[in-house]
Amino acid sequence: MRDYNACPDGVLHLPDDELLLDADEAEYFSSPHEGMAAIHDEIQSLKIPTECGGLRLDQALVKLFPDYSRSRLQTWITEGQVTVEGLPATTKQKVWGGEALVVMPQAHPAEQPYQAEDIALDILYEDDTLMVINKPVGLVVHPGSGNWDGTLLNALLHHAPQLAEVPRAGIVHRLDKDTSGLLVVAKNLVAQTHLVRQLQDRSVKREYLALVHGELQGSGKVDAPIGRHPTQRVKMAVIPEGKPAVTHYQIVTRYPSCTLLRCRLETGRTHQIRVHLSHLNYPLVGDRVYLKGAQKCVPELRTLLNGFPRQALHATRLAVIHPVTNELMEWHVDMPQDMQDLLAKITEAVGA
C-alpha cells in the first residue's frame, strides 16, 4: 500500500483515483514554479527575437514563456492580454522578429486561493475530526474548469474556516455533480491521512442505489480496469491498461425495462459505477455521457425514463473507521426526492 503521509512541505499526497486534477489544474501544479511569480507580478514588455521570425504568435510565446502551456498562452491572446506593436493580437498571426510585444498575464483560477462561500450544507454528523455530508444533486465537490466557485469546497471553508489549513479543505473522495449522497470530510491533516489510508485499504464501505435500463436477472460483480477513454477524453472506459476497479451489484427491484440496483464499491475510480454498468449494457437511467443510443423500453415508461434529467445514482450508505476512536461509524441516507418520485411514477405506470 502506498503511504500518504504529509510530506515535509505539508502537502498530503491523495490517491489519484479518488481526486483527479482537472487538466488545467494539473498543468499549473505540475509546472515549474521558479520564475512564474515574476511574470505574474508585472506586465512583460520585450522584442520578438529574430530566431522566432516566421512563427505564429502562439508558437513564439511558447518559446518565450516555456513555463506555460500553449493553451494558456492562447487564452491570454484571445482575451486581449497580449499586444504586438500596440495592437490586439491573434493566435495565428505571424511574427518576424523585432516587434514590440506586451504580455499582461492573467492568473489562472487554479492559482488563486479558494474563497469561503455561504452555501447551505446538509450535515448528518460532525465532530472535531470529521463530518459527513449529504451532497445534493447539482453541487460540484471541488473547483475545476468551468466551476471555480459555488462548490462544496467553498462551502466547507465557510462552515469551518480552519479547513483552509487542510489540503483540499479535507475532501478525500468525491461524487459527480449530478450524483447525490454521502461524503466524508476530514477536519485536520491527521484525520485526512487516516481516511485516505482507509480508502487505499478498501476498508471504507460505500453503497449506492442505481436505476439502470434493462432487466437484470441476478446479482453479480464487475471486475474490469478503468482508465481514460482513448479518444473521448471527458469519458472513462473499461480498457486493458486501466486501473483495477471492482463493483458489486445486487437487485433491489426489477421493473419492466429497468432495474433498481444496490452497488458496492471496492475501488473508487472516476465514474466507476457508470462505466461498469454501461460496460454490462445496463447504463444508468439519465446518464447522457454513457448511454449508447436508444434503450429498449415498454411504452408506458419511455417518457419517464428518457426524460429523467440526470444519472439516477445516489450514495446511500457510508461506513468508516473513526480516525481518533477507531470506532466503526456508519450512515444511511434516503434517495433524494427526484429519484423517489421517479420510482413512484414507474410503479404507478406499470402497476407493480
Short recap of the structure:
With 352 residues, this protein is of the alpha+beta class.
Write a structural description.
The protein is built from nine helices and 15 strands. With 352 residues, it is an alpha+beta fold. The protein is globular, with a radius of gyration of 24 Å. The model is unreliable at 1-41 (pLDDT under 50).
What proportion of the residues form beta strands (DSSP E)?
15-25%
Mean pLDDT: 86
From the N-terminal CA to the C-terminal CA, the straight-line distance is 47 Å
Q: What's the alpha carbon Rg, rounded to whole Å?
A: 24 Å
Catalogue the unreliable spans: 1-41
Total of DSSP H or I helical runs spanning 4+ residues: 9
Largest pleated sheet: 9 strands, mixed
Q: Structural class, from helix and strand content? A: alpha+beta
Helical content (DSSP H or I, runs of 4+) = 10-25%
Q: How many E strands?
A: 15
Give helix and strand order, one letter per element, not per position.
Answer: HHEHHEEEEEHEHEEEEEEHHEEH
> Shape, please?
globular
